[in-house]
Write a structure and sequence with these properties.
Layout (H helix, E strand, L loop, with lengths): L8 E6 L2 E7 L2 H5 L5 E7 L6 E3 L2 E6 L2 E8 L2 E5 L9 E7 L2 E10 L6 H10 L1 E3 L3 H4 L1 E5 L5 E5 L8 E4 L2 E2 L8 E2 L3 E3 L5 E6 L3 E8 L2 E4 L1
Antiparallel strand pairs: 1-2, 2-9, 3-8, 4-5, 5-6, 6-9, 7-8, 10-11, 11-12, 12-13, 13-14, 15-16, 16-17, 17-18, 18-19
Length: 208
């Protein structure tokens, strides 16, 4: 997800499911931080299918499902800034949020099967507007609870009922790109290209 990067970015992830929030404070607004967050995809994947509040793409053998919150949700094609090969789903407003989930096509062979699975997920956004709280039980059954916590440098989160401990929280955690908190080592693994690591040092960057 392309977020625009801001000190206000907060996210919580477990396996396939992610909650992301961006709530701008007066300092962010004064600094010119854009009042938007967005999900960017190559144009070749086309426009998303709609199912209720969900936006769904089929990407090769994977389903990508996104549920955004904001004052206005819209497609931007091409992406603002002249990237002709990409389009974006944009959530606009001083308060934006996303639930994103992914699923294997082998588990859901058609869109109807995916719709049935999305019907079984749970979203609680009753106090998101007033308190920045989102709760999501995802396609794989994991329960994510995020409280934005505007008075702190990071959100408060629970995963399957357990408090998130930042010392054990990866900065990046995905099937291909990973970085442990404060490790200084970026690990990339590609099924076809192999694996490599990049480490920041006092003299620069080294590749492994």
């Amino acid at each position: 997800m392309a977020t625009g990067r801001s000190p206000g970015d907060r996210y919580l992830q477990e396996r396939s499911a992610t909650i992301f929030q961006l709530i701008l404070n007066p300092q962010d607004i004064a600094a010119g931080v854009p009042a938007r967050s967005h999900l960017v995809l190559p144009q070749r994947y086309g426009e998303p299918q709609r199912y209720g509040d969900w936006y769904i793409w089929q990407i090769e053998n994977t389903w990508l499902c996104a549920r955004p919150w904001g004052d206005r949700i819209e497609l931007e094609s091409p992406v603002d800034g002249g990237k002709e090969d990409y389009r974006a789903l944009v959530a606009r407003g001083k308060r934006t949020a996303w639930v994103v989930d992914v699923a294997r096509g082998a588990d859901y062979p058609d869109i109807a099967a995916l719709h049935n699975a999305l019907d079984d997920t749970e979203i609680d956004d009753r106090i998101w507007e007033s308190g920045g709280r989102l709760v999501y039980r995802g396609l794989e059954g994991d329960l994510l609870e995020m409280d934005y916590a505007t008075d702190a440098a990071y959100s408060r989160g629970k995963i399957n009922g357990e408090e998130r401990v930042l010392e054990n929280w990866d900065e990046l955690n995905s099937p291909y790109v990973n970085q442990k908190l404060d490790s200084g080592i970026l690990e990339v693994s590609d099924p076809q290209l192999g694996s490599w690591k990049m480490q920041g040092t006092v003299t620069g960057i080294s590749n492994k």
